[in-house]
Amino acid sequence: MIDEATFRRVSDSALEALKQSLIAAEEDGGFEAEDNNGVLNVLFEDGGTKFVFTPQTPVRQVWISARTTSFKLDWDEAGGAFVLAKTGETLTALTTRLLREQLDDPSIQLQ
Predict the structure, then answer these.
(1) ∠ at Cα 30 (96, 94), nearest 5°?
(2) Per-domain residue ranges of the chain
(3) Residues 1-22: tens digit of each pLDDT
């Protein structure tokens, strides 16, 4: 397990990069990204749905609450990314898939 300081650095960086990708995709996407004290929220135009991205320091994971499911991503040192062990998807790839499913829009692409 990585140490706490390293986790905070890589999780902050990963969530900031994801936020910037979401902001770039907002215009055509039907959603809005907002950062609230280190927690990244994606709010949808329907007003009732949101995805929540939270760094979990004690277990060194990034958790996503989306589509009635919790996703727990671990840091992959070799790949330099947070990854969902079950599918091998990175934080960005998983978020892209979840947005496409939520909005039924296969054209959504995060950088």
Answers:
(1) 10
(2) 4-103
(3) 899 999 999 999 999 999 999 9
Retrieve residue 50's tokens: 């949101």
The answer to whether the CB of 32 falls within 8 A of the CB of 99 is no
Q: State the chain's maximal CA–CA distance in angstroms.
A: 39
CB-based contact 57:7 (threshold 8 Å): yes
Residue with tokens 């990034």: 62
Length of the chain: 111
Residue pointed to by tokens 């990708």:
21
pLDDT (tens digit, 9 = 90+) per residue, 51-106? Answer: 999 999 999 999 999 989 999 999 999 999 999 999 999 999 999 999 999 999 99
Which uninterrupted H or E stretch holds 71?
A: strand 69-76
CATH code: domain 4-103 is 3.30.920.10
